[in-house]
Amino acid sequence: MTLLSILLQVDTALNTAAAAAPPAPEKISLFNLLMEGGALMIPLLLCSGIMVYVFVERLMVIRKASAIDPTLMVRIQQAVATGDTSGALAACRNNATPAARVLEKGISRLGKPVDQIERSMENTGRLEVYKLEKNVSVLSTIAGIAPIFGFLGTIAGMIILFFNVQHQGFSLETIAGGIYTKMVTSAAGLIIGLLSYVGYAYLNAQINKAVHGIEATSVEFLDSIQQTNH
């Protein structure tokens, strides 16, 4: 009952503000529609803000991680072939990408059996992939809960609408206007959920692309070590 009372008060306040406003031409305004959505538009707006922040932040990180210097492997192979381990490590540290950090771990293990070097690089690679995937699951969570918030807002609005009908009487215009405004939360929730899902899928595709690049670089490095040992 407390939640219903709060929703009733918010809905009454919004309706009072709308009634006090001067008459306007009959047209749909996005801002007015969002205002008509009621109190549950607040968590939906928070979800949309978090969605945009996480997507942009992760996209920048993933793109930076995917920017591998094409000359890096050549310089490392030349340094390793001449025994310049310090130079190879310095080249990796100057690159500052996941692939470079995986190579740095392999270079630091030179002199040990190849299988040990490979395991060390694999462990480092897993850590780098975890860093790339950090917070990406937030988009998946928003894709799931945003439509639920939207439907909850619509249900709460319908409860308020029929409560008002019971106590204030039936009016076709009131019913029609109340229904379409209360559907705003459902539409907003579905749109936010859809965008979150698309963003989640896109970031996962970019992460897979970066992981394939790391794996290809690691395989090339291990092959060069085996050829050097032979």
From TrEMBL:
It is found in: Cell membrane; Membrane. The keyword Membrane applies. Keywords: Cell membrane, Membrane, Protein transport, Transmembrane, Transmembrane helix, Transport. The chain crosses the membrane at residues 29-56, 136-163, 183-203. InterPro entries: ExbB/TolQ_transport, MotA_ExbB_proton_chnl. It holds the Pfam family MotA_ExbB. Residues 96-215 form the MotA/TolQ/ExbB proton channel domain. Its main location: membrane. The keyword Oxidoreductase does not apply. It is a multi-pass membrane protein. Belongs to the exbB/tolQ family. PANTHER family: PROTEIN TOLQ, TOLQ-RELATED. This is MotA/TolQ/ExbB proton channel family protein. It comes from Nemorincola caseinilytica. The lineage of its organism: Bacteria, Pseudomonadati, Bacteroidota, Chitinophagia, Chitinophagales.
